[in-house]
Amino acid sequence: MERILSLSYNDLTLQLKTCLLYLSMYPEDYEVQMEDLVRRWIAERFVKVDGGKNLFDTAKDYFYELINRNMIQATYINYDGQAMACRVHDMIRDLIISKAVEENFITSSGHQTHSLVSQHKIRRLSIDYRGLENVKTVSSMVTAHVQTLGVFGCTDQVPPLSEFPTLRMLALDRSEKLEIGYLKNITKLCLLRYLRIEGSCITELPEQIGDLQCLEMLDLYGTGIREFPTSIVQLLQLKLLLVDGAKLPHGIGNMQGLEELSCITVDDSTSINLLQELGGLTRMRILGLKLCMSAHKTSTRYVDKLVSSLGRLGSSQLERLSVKTDGRLIDIPFGSWSSPPCLLQELITSDLCLCRIPDWMASMANLTCLQIGVNQVTQETLLVLGGLPVLLSLTLNASQNAEPKQRLVVSNNIFRCLKRFLLYCEVGLLTFEAGAMPKLKHSNFRLWRSKRNLRASLPTLASVTSVP
Q: Which terms under GO biological process does the entry name (predicted)?
């Protein structure tokens, strides 16, 4: 079996071999999220741009190629049929661990079955301290040359960051007991270009975080950080900033390299000037916003500036946009955009309540996922959205106070590619013509108040649900 697996491994390109070996950084049976993995590959400089694609798309191609070659196992399949996470089979894991040791690619410590002591300079160090009572510390190891450090679990017995002067990659995963004191020397890691802190009680960053001039990716999902130090706007090389509901920092317009920013809170303290700065980040590909504005802040001038900034991003490089609220109904006039966001592939605005579908939406040639809230779902709504050529997932959410004016008919010449359809609205009559939505796999209907008559003729649905 080892010989057969080695043949498959040897058949990989150099880039794919390197990316596969990197998976030995993760603990056994660990579910690896695709987006996190490809970001690390990029930060490690494993990814070479292929043709006109960007680094992220090329890295995703690497990921799916490893799945197609059965070197990794997909664990979550999205609406578009793409895997969003993976695991490594035990036999493949044994193979890549042996290759990683042989090539001094990764040194692991903490887990009793794979506690390794490198005879060479340690370049990448993976420490698994999850739920282990008697663990072997790494104090005896030479850390001066470590460029990548991944810690899973408690950091109590991990050497201080001051002992990793050449560190370029730092990932602290599921570190529930991590304290701000452990990060006090992080600003001295002048070569650091990737930082991930997940699942900890960290609520603040060191004030001197702006000293990390090489930092390109900052992933703070799962932390309690709600405010940024003022110096963060000095990170001019930063391409990715992920948080879980933090406010926009003043001076964000200086961060012209940002390509991904989410999830950022826009509330009463967010100034109009700050919203204008947001619109100047024209390299942005992915943006997530949470609107927590009170009634007096939803004035025409304030909301118009937000919409104008989003429109500038949409006419540049924006591919994914998510705008959610804290439960309040906010009417955002997206119809005022002068030009359609031609590159947009995913639009999530189901928490908002639009008066009508914007005219530019009919020309969205690349849109694959749409979650939208409207005052009322009409036949015109279905016709406009049904004409989108590559739409795969649609969520329609209508106000419960809206009165139905006409029956809804899903004809057999619209929604030709749709695989997932979620409809939450009030209708008098909902009818599906024979042959409608031929590729549909999953649907969910929540229809209320009016007497309903649902007639459907659909091919092999994986899940059909109607909730009163």
A: defense response to bacterium; innate immune response-activating signaling pathway; plant-type hypersensitive response
DSSP 384-438: HHHT-TT--EEEEEE-TTPPP-S-EEE-TTS-SS--EEEEEE--S-EEE-TT-ST
> SS3 of 4, please?
helix
What are the distances in angstroms from CA 432 to CA 82, 301, 453, 466? 28, 42, 11, 14
Q: Which of 57, 55, 70, 54 is nearest to 20 (CA)?
A: 70
Q: By C-alpha distance, which of 115, 175, 171 is closest to 147?
A: 171
Q: How far apart are CA 71 and CA 92, in angstroms?
A: 7
To the question of pTM greater than 0.85 for the whole model, the response is yes
Per-residue model confidence as pLDDT tens digits over 396-442: 988 765 555 568 899 999 999 999 999 988 777 788 999 999 999 99
Task: Please name the residues in contact with 432: beta carbons below 8 A apart, sequence gap of 6 or more.
Answer: 409, 410, 455, 456, 457, 458
Structure tokens belonging to residue 339: 């030009």
Comparing 43-57, 275-289, 371-385, 452-466, the range with the smallest average pLDDT is 452-466
Write down the CATH number for the domain with range 2-91: 1.10.10.10
Segments of the chain assigned to CATH 1.10.10.10: 2-91
Residues 405-418 as b/e (b if ≥16 CB within 10 A, e otherwise) read eeebbbbeebbbbb
- Residue 197, helix vs strand vs coil: strand
Are the C-beta atoms of 369 and 81 separated by less than 8 Å? no
Residues 364, 351: Cα–Cα separation, whole Å: 21
Contacts with 7 (C-beta within 8 Å, 6 or more apart), sequence order:
none
Paired strand residues for 292: 267
Identify the DSSP state of 341: -
CB of 116 closer than 8 Å to CB of 94 = no
Q: b/e map of 25-60 (b: 16 or more CB within 10 Å)?
A: bbbeebebebbbbbbbbbbbebbeeeeeeebbebbb
